[in-house]
Amino acid sequence: MQLYHRDAIEAAVKIDQEALAKVESGFAALGRGEVVQPPILSMSMEEFNSEVDVKTAHIRGWERFAIKVSTGSFDNPKRGLPSLNGLMMVFSAETGLVDAVLFDEGYLTAVRTALAGAIAAKHLSRKNSRRVAVLGAGEQAELQVEALRLVRDIDSIDVWARRREAAEAYADKMRDSGLAIEVHDSVKSACAQADIVITTTPSREPILQATDLPEGVHVTAMGSDSPDKRELDDEVMIRADAFVCDTRAQSENNGELKAFAGKQPPFKVYELGKVIAEGQNLRLSDATITVCDLTGTGVQDTAIANFALSRLADA
């Protein structure tokens, strides 16, 4: 059994085309029905303002599967500690022996989440998309743009965050990447000229409205990953010409589809894996509006863990 810590993992695994291809292959396998993926195991510890999620999946034919434990302790910033942490355990699918433990402290989750956003944009946004509106100013606000630049020639960012100072700090950091940045005081203003909108907030109520969407935009919503979070107003999904999620079951419980709990949504629901595996073209014109809701799947964790081990073996 191999033990790896964050420093080694971070040195070996970057947001690059090879990592993107590996995570995309996991989504495609899910779309072909080649994945065993149980529901997320979640537990909240309210008295400590903390939670834990456990995700896993086996991809048929792959020698290893991962079990990812992801923790969130939301008072940690007051303690000078990161809010998110975790590790991945990688097992032999044949023998059940532990091949490796990746003490990544949540790094691989951050990477695979960013790559999933890029994969959604690759298959759903206009190929000539150059301007992205980012709602939120945290880690994923940075990483989503970094990954997006693997698939689209992004040159401009419009950013909005609840705290203006956070948006300004984000803008200062992202300008070092050679991008034009504009900070906005409203979501509507930030989205007005966007080709792609990325929502990256822990919001518990919708922040994006249908009237905020310009013609032809693609929206990647990745902040709603638990039953108490929401980023999209119902009308955003209804207005979209195509609504896509990573898995319908997770979106109905943790993601944006819970807005329609107990009833059939008034639109067709697509899954990203099937869009990839079947080569579905949901963008029928430059005016098509697409929305993708990402809640984070076990297949992404198994894919990125296998990729990390292949890189670490070569290091």
From TrEMBL:
InterPro entries the record matches: NAD(P)-bd_dom_sf, ODC_Mu_crystall, ODC_N
Gene3D superfamilies associated with the record: NAD(P)-binding Rossmann-like Domain, ornithine cyclodeaminase, domain 1
PANTHER family linked: KETIMINE REDUCTASE MU-CRYSTALLIN (PTHR13812:SF19)
Protein name, per record: Cyclodeaminase
Lineage of source species: Bacteria, Pseudomonadati, Pseudomonadota, Gammaproteobacteria, Oceanospirillales
The gene coding this protein: arcB
